[in-house]
Amino acid sequence: MLSELRTAHKVIGVKQSKKAIRDGKAAEVFVALDAEKRVVGPIYELCHEMDTKLTEITTMTELGDAAGIDVGAAVVTVLR
Asked: What is the pTM of this model?
């Protein structure tokens, strides 16, 4: 799925991801393991509450590259 992230319909970032998860629009959430835990902790909790698939990626740089952006990303959410 990571290879398909560049072209997938997605949102990038914690705030937009939280909204998508809460609204039931998230198909899968990708979280970078090197992101600050205080930033991504609520994403883990929300995914657990909403029974949303969560996949961990090694680095923010790797996740940003996969999403097709020039900076690192803590969270990327693929939408339904």
From this structure: 0.96
